[in-house]
Structure formats: structure tokens, C-alpha cells
Amino acid sequence: MDITQYFNAVGQQARAAARRMAQATTGEKNNALANIAAALRANKATILAANEKDLAAGKENGLDAALLDRLALTPERFNDMVEGLEQIQALADPVGEITNLNYRPSGIQVGHMRVPLGVIGIIYESRPNVTIDAAALCLKSGNATILRGGSEAFASNQAIAACVQQGLKEAGLPVAAVQVLETTDRAAVGALITSPEYVDVIVPRGGKSLIERISRDATVPVIKHLDGNCHTFIDEDADLDKAFNVALNAKTHRYGTCNTLETLLVAEAVAADILPRLAEAYQQEGVELRGCEKTRALLGDITAATETDWEEEFLAPILAIRIVANFEEALDHIHQYSSGHSESIITENYTTARRFLREVDSSSVMINASTRFADGFEYGLGAEIGISTDKLHARGPVGLHGLTSQKWVVLGDGHIRQ
Amino acid sequence: MDITQYFNAVGQQARAAARRMAQATTGEKNNALANIAAALRANKATILAANEKDLAAGKENGLDAALLDRLALTPERFNDMVEGLEQIQALADPVGEITNLNYRPSGIQVGHMRVPLGVIGIIYESRPNVTIDAAALCLKSGNATILRGGSEAFASNQAIAACVQQGLKEAGLPVAAVQVLETTDRAAVGALITSPEYVDVIVPRGGKSLIERISRDATVPVIKHLDGNCHTFIDEDADLDKAFNVALNAKTHRYGTCNTLETLLVAEAVAADILPRLAEAYQQEGVELRGCEKTRALLGDITAATETDWEEEFLAPILAIRIVANFEEALDHIHQYSSGHSESIITENYTTARRFLREVDSSSVMINASTRFADGFEYGLGAEIGISTDKLHARGPVGLHGLTSQKWVVLGDGHIRQ
Questions:
Q1: Smallest CA–CA separation between B174 and chain A, in Å?
Q2: Set of chain A residues whose Cβ sits within 8 Å of the Cβ of B390
Q3: Kind and range of the H or E element at B7?
Q4: How much is the pTM?
């Protein structure tokens, strides 16, 4: 296969489909989502067989257990995938919404209209359920999409793609609105991220090295999610019961998620009151603690935290703990080490809470709440295509709105500029 | 000068200043703007002398008349520049605005807070008044900025920079909040656009080739403005008097601006009624007409439009005219040739108007209004740092809001994720 030639065809089809999708009615898009769900249910056996094939090949090629787990379409995941489609169908259509339409002194009316971005390229790991999530979000937001899943899920993704295209066709929408690349050649990724003439934005999902590589090489804008090195700060004015519950939940609810607590900061004034009982609870859950000198003096036999520990997203039952002199020192620590994902303060002090909200520059800033809430579903987006740690366009959980932007609309009655 | 070492120092100072600027109160920022205006007035003679020096050097180096004109700080431009500061001072502060703060079923409250982007790098031509415009918009929106003006305006920009820093200092804000690069070495531009550790976004202002080069080489996100190949379509249901006025204004109000009409599309059904009188009016204004075959058959002796004419932003008294069969053909022409800046339709037909608004994918889409309205002042932004033809983040005129983004805020009362 000549990748350049192949990708040019894909890109041209995507551009044409994007124009049609931008005009698709809410009814057409919802019909397509319902049709895709029906097609997936009808072809469950075929899809699971394709997934078995991918799993067998993966085992043969020595994939590790974690990768095989993500690759597997269990019956539960299959059902979640289909239900996800129905949830996205139920969301309000963001496209065409007109806001802030106001008269100007010249007599024209000026407002904003929400519109799709165009063609969205998504590059993700070998998780076949992401194929449907991503396709459905792009479809509902009126975008065309080009999907490039991990090569280990190739057969699964092709089987799912057939259902998506059947669903689009039955709804009278272009099948090219969702294209799953029919090659595992890495050159196709290169073409995808360097073709602004065909692609308006790239959303990479996966490990940090993949995302860094794509961000470095892309000439198309990227909505990216790097680390989630999240902090919780127990202020000297914290309610210590809330502090206990929130700090424990933020670390132990799930270990492998980006919104999990990685470094706990504790004001010196309350450290002796809260840290010993928190440490005991963490240790009961099997969390390894790594502390600063003051923490170790208080808690006794725990590992010394190194510079790397402050910087790292553990994604594991490991927690770094630092005792800070005060609020200012906590802010400085967060400013220096945070990856800009999510940070929370536990405090009853009005002024401190208000300053934290304003002064911490992360995509989610919380008061008296677990960082685990940083999630598109919890925020009411219905679904998310990722969590952005960028500053432009969309910060934090990216849902349907993040896949659109706003153009200006101007209504006149023969108005001319004076 | 070691550019790498110099730029690292600039970048580090900008980062530190950005943190302080994000917390600056509206009062502090307004004081700084007032102080800068006062300093400019007090140092008018020095600044104009510096500008004379730049102009003399420019003449010696054979700059053309247009460049010399843009470089010149006339007394009128000087006054406009100072008044611009006062207008920006009067604008509402976008930073810290909290919107859509709603309770979720979990009990947490989730909303959006508007925050500065951080450090904004602006690369522009030798127009010293842009130094103040750009500095003021970034300052008011709580950002730090690194300015790199054209080398021909070096002395003017340094004299202006001294006033900006005096104004910041008097307001108790870091002088590094606005840094004008103290070198004309092109390597500094390279460093600016490839240092995401110091710079959050680049706004290039200038000719197409400069912007294309920066977009290609930048590893920092770019808010860019490429061409303004703007269209007006006179529909078969147009009020022909409105059509006459709007089409004439859109082309002849000013020739060198990006929102000027470049191609006029006319529905065949009304071409004979409107085109001859419009052509006469254009020709009286000295506009050269280039037409399709049908237009030439109707108007007689005008130049034949080539493919290049449909693609070009003339920025001159030249207009391409095409007679199209109907609305659909007009949409296709716009889809193929538009640069996505601004397009207008003249029609009294409700359905056609509604479709045009929805189906044309440009940063400004208008009904019965001159494309010359596509401007930050006319839209009520107070001022603009440019007009974006990008799809992400900000489309069309970019004012204070375009220099900010939104983070999520979460308020809880000890809430944990179930």
C-alpha cells in the first residue's frame, strides 16, 4: 500500500464528509448513533471473534497482561460500549447554538454560533471500546473523524468500523464521516499529524511518550493530555474529618487514573493531628508512603521522598507526602511540580479557599473535594474524549463542546460600515 | 549576545511575571495602564525622536514607502496609541469570571473560571503602535508578554518599552510582565516560537509568508491570521438596493484590510438587474473588475478572471466577479475558495439566510451586512489583537477573551467519589 496515496484519499473523503456532517440535523445524528448501537448488537459474535483473534495474536507476540486486559472486549465492556452510544445520543446537540446575539451601536446584531471543528484525528492505544466512544462523540458534535487505534486491536477495530459505517449509511450520512485507518503502517500516523489540509485537530490518547512524540511532530493542532500529577493540600484551617475522607478517597479510590492524588501536602500546624491516622489508613490499603524529612520524623519508618517523587505521576499505590510551613509554601510546591491537571485544598477558611481557586493554575481546582471528581461524567459533560492539560481551547475534561468552536454571526438589514 | 542564554533569562522572567499578573487585581492592572499612558505622554519627545531615528535608518536602507508609512509615529498615531490604552482600561476585566456554577447529582458544584493563558509571544512588523496595543491587551487579560517587533522599529520600540516598564513599576507590578526583546537577531524569534516551557501561545501579526513560516516552525501553539479572501453573495431574493450599498461598501470602504470584499458572487436571476449599476459604481471608484465569462458577456469590456483571481486576497482596488446559477453554486464556490475569514449573503429569503448562517464555515458569517464589520471594535470587543482564521480556541476577532481560557472549579464540602 502506498501510504501517501492512501492517506490522501482518506483525507479528501474526510473533508467532504465533514462538510455534510456539519449540516446534519440532530435527528440524523441521533439516528446514526441508534443504528450503530443496533449494528453492534447484531454483530456481537463477529466482533468478539475478531477480538479473540487480536488477543490470540497479542499473546503470541508476548503482550504483557495490562495490555491484553485493555485489548479484551469482555461482554461487560461490550455492553458498556453500546450503552455509551445511547448516552451520547441523549446529550443535547451543541451544534448551531447561538449565544450572546446583541445589537451594536452600528445597528448590526452580533453573536456566536457553535460549529464543529471539521476533521478530528484520534490516535489511541489498543482499546477497541475507544473506537466507539471517539466515533460517537465526533459524530454527535458534527465532525468527521479519522481513527488510528493501536495495531494490536486491528481486527477488533475493523469489525467495529463496519458497524459504524452501516449505521451511518442507514441514517443517510456519509460512511466516510468515521474512517478507521485500514493499515497498521506507522507512516499513516505521520501523515495524519502533518496534514492540516485534511485534519483540523489531533487528539492523542495513550502513554506520555506517545503524546510527547505526537505533540513534537504534529503540524496539526493537538488537544493533549500529559501527566496528572495531582495534589491535595490540607490547610491549617481544614476540617480534619473532611481532610481524612477526601485525602484517602483521592488516593485509594483508583490508583491508575490521571485524577488520582500523587502528592499530599499538609500544613505543619495540623500535621501531627491528621497525618498519623491518615498514614495508618493508607498503609491498611497497601499504599506505600514516601515523605519529606518532617513527615518521616512524625511517622517514623517510611521511605524518604526524593525530587523525582514530587515530579512523578505514580499511577500506583504510592503517595508522596510533604509537610509545608503554610499556604504560601503549598502554593509554591504546586506551582513548581504540578502538571496542571487537578489540585484540591481542604480548608474551612473563606479567604484561603478563595485564593486557592484563583491562584492555582490547573485545569481543575477544587475545594473540599476529591480530585477523583475531575472527569467528564462527574462534571456533567455526559462523556469525554480526554482530559486536556493544554491551556488553549479546552482545559480539563473535553466533551462535545471541546470538539466544537464558535464562529461569529452578524445580522444586518443592508448595513454598511461608516 | 548569546541568544540562547538571553532568551532563557527572558523566558524565566516572563514565567515569574505571569504568575504575579494572573493574581493582579483589576485596580492594579488599570493603574498600570493609566501610568503607561502618562509615561508615554511625558516622554512623547523622546519617543518621536527615536522614531525619527528609525525612519532615517529605514530611508537609508531603502525601505519602500508603505513600510516607512507603517513605521512612522505621526502625532495622530501617537495620540491614538495613548487613547487606545484608556479604552482598554475601560473594558471589563475578564479574569476570574465564574460561569455555569451548578450542582451535580454527587453534591459537588462545578463551574468555569476564566483565567489568563500565561505568557504570550507576539511577533509583528515594524509598527511601533502595535507594541502598546499588544502590551495593553496582554496586561489587562492578566498575561505576561514577550514582544518582538520588526527590526526597523527597534529604537521606537525600546523607547516605548521604557514607558511600559515605568508604568508597571509604579503600579507595583513586575516590569517583566511586558518584555520587548532587546535584540534584532532572528535567532530570538526561533527561540520564542520553540520554547513551550516559557511561552504558552504565539500571535504572529504580519504578512502571509511570515505567518506561514512561524506556524510551520513553532512548537508553541499559534493563534494565526492568514488571508482574508472574503465573499459577498447577492442571492436571487436579494433586496437590490441593499445589495448595491453593501457590495459597494464591502469593496470600497478600504482596500488594504483583511475584511474587504475580494470576490462578488451574483445569482444569475438578478445579475442583469444589479451588476451593470454596481460595475459602474465600482469603476467610478477606480476598482478594476475581473469577471467570469457570464459577467463579461453582461458587462462588456472587463478582464477575464483566472483561477488565481478566485484564490487571491487582492488587498487592492481589484474585484473578482462571478455569476452563479443559484445558492448552491455560491456555497460551493465559497467552500472551495474562501480563506474562512468573512462571508456575507444579501437576501430577503428566510430559509436561504438561515442556511447560509449554518452552512458557511468562516469565522464571521453575515446576512445583509458589509464584511467590513468583521472587526473587534465593531463586534464590541473594545480592541483586538488580531483576527484568527484558525478553528481552535478563538475564531475571528480576538480580544481580551481570546487571551484567556477557562479552568474548572469544583466546590465541595468533604465530598468523595463513590
A1: 17
A2: 221
A3: helix B3-23
A4: 0.93
